[in-house]
Amino acid sequence: MSGRVGRYHMPGYAGPLSLKMMLRGRGRWRTGTTEHLVTPGSVLILNAGQHYSLTIEDEDIETLCPFFADALVREAVRARRLDLGALLDRPRDVDARTPEFVERLRQPSLDLLADAQRLRRAIQGEGEAHDALLRLLDRVLLEFVDERERIAELPAARAATREELYRRVHRARDYIHATLDGDLCLDTLARVAALSSYHFHRSFRAVVGTTPARYVSEQRLLRAHELLRARELAVSEVVFEVGWSSLGSFSTAFKRRFGVSPARVRDANSQARRSAEKGARSTVGP
């Protein structure tokens, strides 16, 4: 899907393993009680059979959401597990299970982005789509292997406990991304993760690599910087949209993070936009 949409809603749907990407704009995928806000800097992998709905409110959007048939996924998993001789002996014997991903927003690797763009170009007629889809599936399976390794490193005795902690922390992390303008205090996030505040704080730091408060502040600052560059908004409006408590503390934190005041970013963006509009008008004849 691409173009100018305005508002689009797709109600409940379930399909095979799939990748959800927004090349332009932002989309909200809801699975059960969890909402995942997907932007050009993130990707969502949904497992086979997962029911979800999609809401898009941005006007200028482009999505890339490839689906991977169950049989194709099992075949690819089996090919990774067996040596070439075994594959030649049993070419039609597909007995591997479809991998079960932790449902969470992910920061795509450069390799995954490159393979996704290759598929996009193939869909537009600039390549072989099936080959591009297989390459992207292989990259997605590598993501699964990396995720299993990260879960195994968590400080918990039982494997099932480590995976459940990983899921719960990322449920809260995705909640942060979806509700930056909301109440994101420690107690609220701990409730989302269904953990005590103390246990959540420790687990979040182990999984994400920083504290919940620092992560929230960083995401709010990044979103504010994006808004100031992309839209004609007053700094006070941006402060409200990203849920910061006060204009003064926001300006101090913003300058510390980006080395420039939010007003300077906004003014530079406004000036660049006016210059672009003036240049566009000057190229139009009578």
Automatic annotation (TrEMBL):
- SUPFAM superfamilies named in the record: Homeodomain-like, Regulatory protein AraC
**Domain (HTH araC/xylS-type): residue spans on this chain:** 170-268
The record, for InterPro entries, names: AraC_XylS_family_regulators, Homeodomain-like_sf, HTH-like, HTH_AraC, Tscrpt_reg_AraC-type_HTH
Q: Which UniProt keywords apply?
A: DNA-binding, Transcription, Transcription regulation
Q: What GO molecular function annotation could you give as one example from this UniProt entry?
A: DNA-binding transcription factor activity
Q: Does the keyword Transcription regulation apply?
A: yes
Among its keywords, does the record have Glycosyltransferase?
Answer: no
State the name under which the record lists this protein.
Transcriptional regulator, AraC family protein
